[in-house]
Amino acid sequence: MGTEIENWLMDLDYEQWMPLQTSGPRPSSRYKHAAAVFDEKLYVVGGSRGGRYLSDFQVFDLRNLTWSTIKPKIQSDSKTTPVEVFPSVSGHSMIQWGVKLLLVAGLSSKNVTEKVTVRFIDLELHTTGTVETSGDIPVARSGQSATLFGSKLVMFGGEDRKRRLLNDVHVLDLETMTWKSVAATKNAPSPRYDHSATLHAERYLYIFGGCSHSVFFNDIHLLDLETMEWSLPQTQSNVVSPRAGHASVAIRGNWYIVGGGDNRSGLFSTGASETLVIGMSKLVVSVLATVKKGSPLASEGVSLSSAWIGGENVLIAFGGYNGKYYNEVFAMRLKKPMNCSKPKMVQSPAAAAAAASVSAAYALTEGGQISNHRKDVSDETVVLEEEKDVLRSSVAEAAAQTCALRAKLDGINENCAELSKVRVLDSDATDLSLGSFDANE
């Protein structure tokens, strides 16, 4: 960590949003863009402004708070040749996979397709292209969620080009780039778009909020990715207001949610001013911070990313729209994870009944010793859960890097094979030349 980061990081208060003083050519104001942090840099791609889709690729260096623009080139071995170097796109999802950013779905003003498009940006080579996918490719859409699940990407919902609302589930294997449509059980969320999603305990997909064409939601749905069963868990709070177009990020068991439009005074006329934090183990919802009405953070289409800086987690927000388009950058330092209670696993009815029987049996024994023992176990469980989250993140990153290295190795092997062919041809040509020379002699 450099001195420049230390300077601005120490100026931030814990759990309070602060605007960052940036330098360099600031990107145009926008919303419905995509953003991700990699190697202490915030990458911003696309978005919309005044009904116009954007095609730029912006980089914000968190070390010196400087903006710059990258113009990626079409990869030489790309099998597609887009009209634009990078197409204008809005309402897309973006995830980091190794040294690449994968852009999934979204609407574009050009190169309209009927199926979901997956694009990539190589952060090392600064190249871009379209990824060829196979299988049951989903219909094109925007406002969907895309969540990384090991070496797979889980996509839910959205709105297609005909404005048809969706609540389908599709899984993309990132190693084979093969789509699979998932037939989830009943109790699925109602069709929606501009919701948020996250993964918990490497098994449960949470869906929050979003909207239809007339209703804004504040519900939380859970999809068990092992059984593909939907459920509607209860939250331990009544502070959750309906919202859509919000942004979210999960850090070590806590789910942070910022912005979003609501229907209090008309469609997207006001933004949600509360930054929420949801402890995912027991779905305890609380308000982490509140901003003034009209703040860029009380917007729809804002992006939210997390950065690990100097041993601390920092939230980074950019852009948004609430009657005005924004291009400011805000940051928040986070304290230790807030969910310090014993994790509560989502159970089937049979498992819940068994757990109730066990609890009843414990209630008949001496309460004091058991209470102390449970407290010790709860504390140990919290520590173990935090360590597991760190290990899961490390494993996911290692898997992504392995996939990227495998792709590079395949490219090297192809180059070696081509060189071998050239050498054989050169050798044959030399033999023919010598034979011709001998004949002339």
From TrEMBL:
Coiled coil: none annotated. Keywords: Kelch repeat, Repeat. SMART domains: Kelch. The keyword Repeat applies. The keyword Repeat applies. It comes from the Eukaryota. This is Acyl-CoA-binding domain-containing protein 4.
